[in-house]
């Protein structure tokens, strides 16, 4: 029997950039790139990476003056929280009753409060407490709320129903009234009782946001494809759902950080939050309230610092929300 040699047929496909690819052999011809496409004279590079939501958001944030201003203010607050002695060398607990309620003078630009303490030094050192409470409470709320909300949104059923009813109960508790009841029986002078209280009443909001975001993302085609390929629940949550559902949580947590700082000051003002000898803007505002006519400066500076801090975090959250929301582009 004679051998017959069959020559493989070459199948050539035309690519979208004008080149050809040989589908019948192992080798391929390098597609010719269009002049203005990736790798061409006017393109971004030979291997241009696809733009993602996070890269687009960072590009928009860098061009947003609101983000730049609020970011600079927050960076300054973080720096003075870590190293308050860099701009205020005195001690916030060092007071002189002979200088009580005196105004601005050399070395003491903000004057003195009703106890003769330097208002400038106490205002600078008070930033550490406020920033620490805000950051730690936000991290605790974000982690606890995100985990519970993501699990309820992913599994649904009984877990979702239980979480919904529990969050309804926590939403019915007035925050300030709850703080007066719970913190009034705690005698600790540290920030941890206040942080724990904020986490206890703050996680339901983040849980609702995370639940809704996970429910939306898990219906996408790439999640269904990964499930069809046998991906485990852990892989689906951590690799496919969480990275695409975390944006709303980041936005809400950033805005809530400023709210938590204001809540700490409110509880300290009412006498159930931080207590002396702790240094806090809420404590200073409470102490300066009876002397508002004779020494308004003692109330103005800590109140102004609190307002600027809360406003900076709220502006940062608004900028992040605008950058991460594709509908606003």
TrEMBL record:
Belongs to the binding-protein-dependent transport system permease family. It comes from the Bacteria. It is found in: Cell membrane. The keyword Cell wall biogenesis/degradation does not apply. The lineage of its organism: Bacteria, Bacillati, Actinomycetota, Actinomycetes, Kitasatosporales. CDD domains: TM_PBP2 (cd06261). It comes from Streptomyces fimbriatus. Residues 22-35 have a biased composition (Low complexity). Its main location: membrane. InterPro entries: BP-dependent_transpt_permease, MetI-like, MetI-like_sf, OppC_N. Residues 36-46 have a biased composition (Gly residues). Keywords: Cell membrane, Membrane, Transmembrane, Transmembrane helix, Transport. This is ABC transporter permease. Residues 17-51 are annotated as: Disordered. Gene3D superfamilies: MetI-like. Residues 127-317 form the ABC transmembrane type-1 domain. It is a multi-pass membrane protein. The chain crosses the membrane at residues 66-83, 131-157, 169-186, 192-210, 245-263, 299-320.
């Amino acid at each position: 029997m004679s051998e017959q040699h069959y020559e493989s047929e070459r199948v050539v496909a035309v690519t979208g950039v004008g080149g050809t690819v040989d589908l019948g052999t192992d080798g391929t011809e390098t597609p010719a790139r269009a002049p203005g496409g990736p790798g061409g004279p006017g393109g971004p590079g030979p291997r241009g990476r696809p733009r993602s939501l996070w890269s687009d958001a960072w590009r928009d944030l860098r061009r947003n003056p609101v983000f730049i201003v609020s970011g600079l203010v927050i960076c300054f607050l973080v720096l003075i929280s870590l190293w308050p002695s860099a701009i205020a060398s005195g001690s916030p607990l060092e007071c002189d009753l002979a200088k009580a309620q005196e105004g601005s003078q050399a070395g003491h630009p903000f004057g003195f409060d009703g106890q003769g303490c330097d208002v400038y030094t106490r205002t600078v050192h008070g930033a550490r407490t406020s920033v620490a409470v805000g950051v730690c409470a936000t991290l605790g709320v974000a982690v606890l709320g995100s985990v519970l909300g993501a699990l309820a949104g992913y599994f649904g059923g009984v877990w979702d129903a239980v979480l919904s009813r529990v969050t309804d109960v926590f939403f019915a508790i007035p925050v300030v009234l709850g703080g007066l009841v719970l913190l009034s029986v705690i005698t600790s002078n540290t920030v941890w009782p206040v942080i724990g209280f904020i986490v206890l009443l703050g996680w339901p909001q983040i849980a609702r946001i995370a639940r809704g975001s996970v429910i939306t993302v898990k219906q996408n085609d790439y999640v269904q494809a990964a499930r069809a390929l046998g991906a485990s629940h852990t892989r689906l949550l951590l690799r496919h759902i969480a990275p695409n559902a975390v944006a709303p949580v980041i936005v809400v947590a950033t805005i809530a950080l400023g709210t938590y700082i204001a809540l700490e000051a409110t509880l300290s003002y009412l006498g159930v939050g931080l207590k002396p000898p702790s240094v806090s803007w809420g404590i200073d505002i409470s102490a300066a309230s009876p002397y508002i006519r004779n020494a308004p400066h003692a109330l103005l500076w800590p109140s102004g610092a609190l307002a600027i801090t809360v406003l900076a975090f709220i502006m940062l959250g608004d900028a992040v929300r605008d950058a991460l929301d594709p509908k606003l582009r």
